[in-house]
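ligand=adenosine monophosphate
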Amino acid sequence: MEQERTIMQAINPLVLRECEAARVDPDAYWERAAEQLHWFRRWDRVFESNAPSFRWFVGGETNLAYNCLDYHVNRGWGGHAALVYANERGERRTFTYAQLRFEVSRVAAALRGMGVEKGDRVTIYMPVCPEALILMLATVRIGALHSVVFAGFGAGALAERVRASGSGLLFTADVTYRKGTDVPLKGLVDSALDLVPSVVKRVIVLNRKGEAVPMKAGRDIEWPEFLAHGEGHSGEHVPMESNEPAYILATSGTTAKPKLVVHTHGGYQVGIHHMGRICYGITPNDVWWATSDIGWVVGHSYIVYAPLLLGATSIAYEGALDHPGPDMLWRLVEEFGITAIFTSPTAVRLLMRYGDEPTRGADISSLNRIFCAGEVLNSPAWEWLQKQVLSDRIPVIDHWWQTETGGPMIGNPYGISMLPIKPGSAGIPLPGVEVEVMSMEGTPLPPGEKGILVVRRPIPSLTPTLWGEEERYGTDYWDRIPGVYFTGDAAHIDEDGYVWFAGRADEVIKIAAHRLGTVEVETAFMQHPAVAEAGVTGRPDELRGEVISAFVALKQGYEPSEELRRELLQTVRRELGPIAVIGELNFVDTLPKTRSGKIMRRVFKAVIQDRDPGDITTIEDEGSVEEARQAWRQMKAEMGQASAEGGR
Ligand code: AMP
């Protein structure tokens, strides 16, 4: 109660009213949100708990894909641009709502012609291209489930995800475009399917280059032949009970055995549509660009589903954000009159490495807001984008969510009324979201005290289970601290109700009696103008329990030196005080990151403990592990030398 009161203090009346309404009667609040969407049959009950699982809008019938397309076409919005595809080679394709519905319906018929039925799983291992998005919508339209696997993953990761989903059909392409090269995909599919031989019966290949692709007779066919299977079949939608799954998706965690979240036709749809309105303020006039990939949940919810549910124009971009040049992002804004961008801190830090020169050449006056999620948007990166690049003309807004939550939970309710931005904070719990910071023992902590962020009550878009692993759902999320959803993130809530994330809870560094979040130390490093990115971990230390081992990447134009090292240590000490004891600082070119752009701090931990980093199938650049190892070896040698010299 105490905490709820403080959360409300900083909030303006419009937001306060909405938060209050949701808190007093959450069912009525979400019922109103559901009423904004089309249902074939109204629900009997709004919410039903069956701990640890739950159901939303029980008995209601809807279809996520139908509401993305047919609903708009039927209300006369068919001529509006729904999807704009662009890639780094300069190719563009645009689909209106009516055109997209036509294509989706055609593919839905072809899926039926291939024997796909309601409840079947289909793996999509394709780049962000129109055919992949059309397939997603077509699968959902007929009540089958897609399992999209990021097309940057290798054969092992793909095989595991195919096995876990039990997909009978797999869609792929010959190549994906990345930084000016054609990255082949089909060979990886063949290797993956050798590892799980009896699961996938048919492979469908989109041949983009028009060159011969090795095909396995009896299993593999090309896209036109697939489409021909639609002959004589219906592409009509299937009404789905609200709690029936629309898709499954592996979390971006790095465990060898992927966890597959389940997002539903009803609750998920209501959740992402509602947050699309109140968190992002998406309207039909928006030209909305989420720079993510369809392999991640952001791609599902905010490249494909929510922008279409809201009647907006969604940009789907294939390629690297800094190719052919670091100004690509801004040029695309100018070309399409993009009004809103949703990107990641890692993308901001990437652009920051190039400096602000590339940001000056394009007219970006159409743009009126930028959102960021995926990691903490460290205040120096926020400052650079907000002040230096955008001259404070439009807001840069951090917000927080997870694959499991389907859509945002902590943010700045831009769509209701913007609150003051506190750089480095992800914002407030959005209306309808009940969170708390607790100790590991489940004691609620007062404002300012760091603990685990937990969620007290499911929101409609929260995954209600894990595919095929009901028990693991309970043990991983609801039993860690009994009765609340365990996010796994360390955070504190300040006196104004803003949430500050400090990193994953199991990565907190304990120095003497203090607990430092990895993010706090990394942000402190970034206060120095030479630093583009930093990643830190705790190293065991006899005296203090742990000390900080830091890996730092510099901006263009800066070189590692002893002097710079000293300056950086001073910067951290100035920001965090003497408790932030840096054991060593290693300079590297690239930090190890997941393919979705998150710093992999456990790799640092393995490197400094001279052990194997374990499963790194989700890593972006395997060379970064060796680089960290080398930097660490050199550092150890220097430290050895220093202590030997000290002893002389
Ligand atoms: P994913 O499931 O891949 O979306 O990753 C979810 C995780 O990313 C969260 O549990 C956080 O650890 C991290 N994350 C996402 N957004 C933020 C943010 N705005 N600030 C801090 N951490 C974030």
